[in-house]
Amino acid sequence: MVGLWSMIQEIDQSRTTWAIKARATRVYREPAHDGFPPSLEIIFHDEEASRIHGHIPDQFIGKFINLFREGRIYVVKNFMVEKIFMFFKTTTSAYRLRFFKKSEAFEIQIPFPSRTFNLVTFVGLQAAETIDDKVAVDIIGQVIHHKDPKTILKNDRPKKLIELILGDTEGNVIGCTLWGPMVEMLLTYKLTTAEPIVMLLQCCRAKKYQGQVHVSNMFNITKVILNGVEDEFNDFRSRMADRCGEGLSFMISSDTSNEGDISTG
């Protein structure tokens, strides 16, 4: 502990009087589902870049809904620490913070490192023997190919999807599927720009099957950013420009066939 503040890695279930300084990297609403009431969910990181998930139950949403904003820094005090039992984990921590009636939080403005995204590389995913598809990852790549959108039945409900190929700055590619509203978001954005589309998926799901890596958005949890202004985008574009100067290029295409042509070289 440094002064009155604890680091996220120090937190355990021994008490409810912890106090942390942390940046909110993701804030989203979880609607009622499968007998669970709605909630407000937040992912925090501290000065050491350690991450932990925060859960605000339905009865306390009104107290915090107008407070938490992505990218801002907060003092968070007096929370319960509970073992993670979420089906899909947003961090690798064994715990999450559960807000209750005595919980407090307020925004502060201090110099603080920004680790909003915890990016994994295409190579890292492809080299892994196995991937835990129950733990969220952040990934960035250029959209180099997409098929036409389609609608399928999933859990007896129609779901819209679009299949993409993403490329990194080293010429590696992985498959990507966007579901739900993300489909129209991408297609609408594509109509507004002639620039290559660089996509960052925050808190997406990665799977590996027969040696092939595939990522997809998770409803409510995943945030998709297209051609953003964040440092990660600037770094990606800079590295892509350098590699293009060395002869790396992608053929960007879309089609209605079952197979897409991808050219690197």
UniProtKB/TrEMBL annotation:
This is Replication protein A 70 kDa DNA-binding subunit B/D first OB fold domain-containing protein. Residues 6-103 form the Replication protein A 70 kDa DNA-binding subunit B/D first OB fold domain. It holds the Pfam family DUF223.
